[in-house]
Amino acid sequence: VPLETQGQNLTQDVLDLLDTKETLQSNEDFPAVPQRDIKAALDRLASRSMVEYKTLDKEQVNLTPESEGIVANGSHEFKVWKAVKEAGKIAIKELPSIVGKESASVGQGNAFKNKWIKKDGTDLVLVATEEPEDSMQKLLKGIQESQTVSDAKQLNDLKKKRLVTVTKVITYTVTKGPKYAKEMPVEHTDLTADLLASGAWETANFKPYNFAALGAQQDAGALHPLMKVRQEFRNIFFSQGFVEMPTGHFVDSGFWNFDALFVPQQHPARDMQDTFFVSDPPTADKPRADPDSERQMDQMEASSQRLFSTGDKREKKPRDFEKYWNDVKKVHEDGAFGSIGYRYKFKDEETLRLVLRTHTTAVSTWALHRLAEDPRPARYFSIDRVFRNETVDATHLAEFHQIEGVIADFGLTLGGLQRFLGDFFANMGLENLRFKPAYNPYTEPSMEIFGYHKGLKRWIEIGNSGMFRPEMLEPMGLPKDMRVYGFGLSLERPTMMKYGVSNIRELLGHKVDLSWIKEQPAVRFDKE
Ligand code: PHE
How far apart are CA 308 and CA 501, in angstroms? Predict the structure, then answer.
């Protein structure tokens, strides 16, 4: 029977029964109907004032199979007494084979304690009383009938001995309401044009609204917490005039990922242990303009300029990728632009190897080279995936997301970078930043960033930063007096802090629990 009809039948059953008697008792009149169904039917009727009902919560004491056995055959001690009585005289060790193991062990002690049996010598027993009163059996028989135990201590005792269990029963006492009728009246669910035109609406019987009904469960999609936090960071960047860089391509060449960043070709980061190399195809073209990225970046810049530009038209000096390549090679091999270089044999093949990008700084480099067409103050950011050949554990994955920002301007100082980072991280509730000298091949000076997390009440490492080296910026053709800040952090770290995730694999990768994602709060930053 479909649930809906079942419910209607029950509703009608209640009305029918109330026609024959004054008061219904749900446990007696509908013993087999689940409590939830009976309540639904009663609510339907009560909301129309057709019935009134009261709810009674009661504890019901039930016998267990063991105590049912005692009611039928007597207590363990009674069985022991009976066995001894029938035998006249019996050895203790023979009891289990007559009354069963359990009755022998429990009953024997009690029978002695009650003075129903007594010892004869060391291991023989005799009865010590005629017809003892089996009070345990009597007690349980009473409980079986009343389904209650009034003495709380006694109830506890019986529960501990596993002789009774307690269940909660809800009983409804139902009487007729002021609008009782033998049948549910026809109800209108809509106010129609006909009802209005005919005037029937004035006397029509409308189905009451059920304001307590829960809405239907929506099977909607949900944004992943990482994507929510990413959007929050985006908003912070946008509000400060940053332009988003195109990071859609995960594969890049050694040139953009390493060489252009003045990372020497024998640097450990370029080992197979640290970087994923692409085997098919294994090599890239020499660096050249990428129309897709170009178009995306043009769009992002155009929309940002509507907000921040002074509106003047500027001359552009097109990029010369060949010269860039040669200058990067020169600065590594022999030194240039006032640097003595690394002085090793630069291998073109190494530069052309395809890699899964190990940092988004590969894209920042591309954007800064592009900026050299028209060097001017600029702010760029990106938030996207990077890949490292790491051993996976609770805090490391072979892929994660980097948040990265670069700021190019004239006359920038390290103090300005610290100030900028202080303001930036304050948005995340991190205060009193501390900076620790660090090393990156492409920045000098370099600083690790630490912040005091008010929520967690401890110092945490939050990122890496620095001022890009002239060895990186000058081959691009950027003016000598232009300085560029750079900083990067993972997106996973702040997300884990915010959502209380201790294992990164719960957040990203194949172990992510989709229902957990659906239940996460939608807002990243707590309002003060
Ligand atoms: N690329 C660095 C990293 O992977 C972050 C960084 C970006 C550092 C820019 C300095 C400047 O951690």
Answer: 38
CA gap 385, 353 in Å, rounded: 19
Chain segment 253-268, per-residue pLDDT in tens:
999 999 999 999 999 9
| Distance from the alpha carbon of residue 465 to the mean position of ligand 1, in angstroms | 6
pLDDT of residue 522: 57
Give bridge partners of residue 60 from the DSSP assignment. Answer: 167
Question: Residues near 134 by Cβ (< 8 Å), separated by ≥ 6?
Answer: 74, 75, 77, 78
Q: Which CATH superfamily, name and number, covers 225-519?
A: Bira Bifunctional Protein; Domain 2 (3.30.930.10)
Class of domain 76-133: mainly alpha
Rounded distance, CA 35 to CA 451, Å? 56
CB of 488 within 8 A of CB of 361? Answer: yes
What local confidence, expressed as pLDDT, does residue 527 receive?
Answer: 43
Count other C-beta atoms under 10 Å from residue 58's C-beta.
12
Instruction: Decide whether any atom of ligand 1 lies within 6 Å of the 304 Cβ.
Output: no
Minimal-distance CA residue to ligand 1 atom 4: 359
- Residue 488 near ligand 1, beta carbon < 6 Å: yes
pLDDT at 455 over 90: no
CA-to-CA dists, residue 493 to 116, 180, 461, 506, 513, angstroms: 74, 64, 9, 13, 19
Chain segment 329-352, per-residue pLDDT in tens: 999 999 999 999 999 999 999 999
Most confident of the ranges 261-275, 293-307, 403-417 = 403-417
Range 3-60+145-202: architecture per CATH: 2-Layer Sandwich (3.30)
Q: Are 64 and 164 in contact (CB under 8 A)?
A: yes
Reading the block at residue 23, the tokens are 């008061």
Task: Give the number of other CB atoms < 10 A from CB of residue 244.
Answer: 20
What's the 505 CA to ligand 1 centre distance in angstroms?
23
Residue nearest to atom 5 of ligand 1 (CA): 488
Q: For ligand 1, atom 10, which residue shows the shortest CA distance?
A: 465
**Quick check: CB of 246 below 6 Å from ligand 1?**
no
Q: Is the ipTM of this complex over 0.90?
A: yes
Tell me the CA–centroid distance for residue 483 and ligand 1, in Å. Answer: 16
Domain boundaries defined on the chain: 3-60+145-202, 76-133, 225-519
In 3D space, the residue among 135, 125, 154 whose CA is nearest the CA of residue 78 turns out to be 135
